[in-house]
Write a structure and sequence with these properties.
The chain is α/β, with parallel strands linked by helices. It has a single domain, classed as AF0625-like (Rossmann fold), CATH 3.40.50.10700. A six-stranded parallel β-sheet has the order 4-3-8-7-5-6, with helices on both faces. Strands 1-2 form a two-stranded antiparallel sheet. β1 and β2 form a beta hairpin. The longest helix is centred in the middle third of the chain and has 15 residues. The radius of gyration is 18 Å and the shape is globular. It starts with 9 loop residues before the first strand and ends in an 8-residue tail after the last helix.
Amino acid sequence: MSYTDNKQKRACVLGYPVDLVTKEEALDFAENFMATGKGLHVVTINPEIILAAEKNPELDAIIKKAGLIIPDSTGMELALRRQGFNIKKLAGIEFSETLIDRCAKNNYKVAFLGATQKVIELLQKELKLKYPEINIVYARNGYFSDNDMPEITDKLKELNPHLLLVALGAPRQEYIISKYREELPHTVMIGVGGSFDVWAKKVKRAPVFFRIFGLEWLYRLIKQPSRFSRMFPALPLFIFRAAILGQKSRREY
């Protein structure tokens, strides 16, 4: 089931579906799946993921099968606005943390997979301080091999979390979630990139100024110059293609 099954619209950005959804609509949609024990893959899509998927058929298929696809960047917002859609970006880190908050309030089981062991430990500590009622049933670092997967899978199946957040970076987190879709049919799953580091207070998120003006990417680049080769020419190329296509690419997916 996808968001479009609820008679809502999806845009198409460079061939990839994006749900035309507000933050509250997306949260309510995901929470409904948790409340009713249904599985859901949420993709927080951005230009880097789209450009990577264009070169990777497996990633391409995974993204297009996701039940909820939210625009997680200023680049996506600009592309949608170019097509005439008045939709604001929905930062994946904010979406996921608000979902954690809802889980804490409703005693939904939450699981975390990814990052380093130190970050996983700090993450649990910080989240329990911020959300005292949070029910963390599983937390494991991201340093595991294929040989470890059966053990991890069996444990997750036993615990059956309502929400599984995977912080392994794209595309690895998408591959893992894709493998778990059948194994965990009652779990909402989201790939959250480096969010664990932020929630664990190991890495600072961009100041409000950068976020308001859609420059969070610039702050990350300043703090992590090594990201330059990954972001460029990816981001300018995406903006250029989206701008050139403009209204010509507007259609529902």
